[in-house]
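Example complex used in Figure S2.
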Amino acid sequence: DAGVIQSPRHEVTEMGQEVTLRCKPISGHDYLFWYRQTMMRGLELLIYFNNNVPIDDSGMPEDRFSAKMPNASFSTLKIQPSEPRDSAVYFCASSYGVGIGELFFGEGSRLTVL
Amino acid sequence: SQQGEEDPQALSIQEGENATMNCSYKTSINNLQWYRQNSGRGLVHLILIRSNEREKHSGRLRVTLDTSKKSSSLLITASRAADTASYFCVSRTSGTYKYIFGTGTRLKVLA
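Predicted assembly (225 residues):
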């Protein structure tokens, strides 16, 4: 398996623009997580899904953030409108719920909002 | 914030020495895991310890868990330059699949 695939790896955008980050989890995994990593706040859990259904979105910072999982092989995290304080590395991770629950991470999407 | 804390924040040791990192968490947990992150990369799972376990070994790694103190430690023995990375503890909140990361320890192993 190719592992968790995220795109884009790097994104530079202007304040106010819409940003869409994408994630393809490992086939067969039924949990998908979105994390944000910054120097100031470390790794924060934004939202997680089980079988494509959002379970806990309490970490989503504002209404400007939204996440969807239309099917088992694809998820998006959208920021609209983007602000400079959204600059961070966004990680997607997937897991198989039955078993030890090890998280498998993608390489991350580094977002810079100017 | 539910985020756990780790100490030290940074650790610099010589190759061959042991490295110990400590982690505290805030909620009741199902299990606690340790992950490693090389600079600019994603995180990789190292080891998991369940809430009913006190100690676990895997190669050069030893993890302990004290649920009464809500704390864990990771020991890396005979460290190598390739162990240079950031290390995070991750607690899985009981009854959920919510994984909460600690603040991380940056380990530097000098050759």
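The two ends of chain B are 37 Å apart (CA to CA). Chain B touches chain A through 23 residues (CB under 8 Å).
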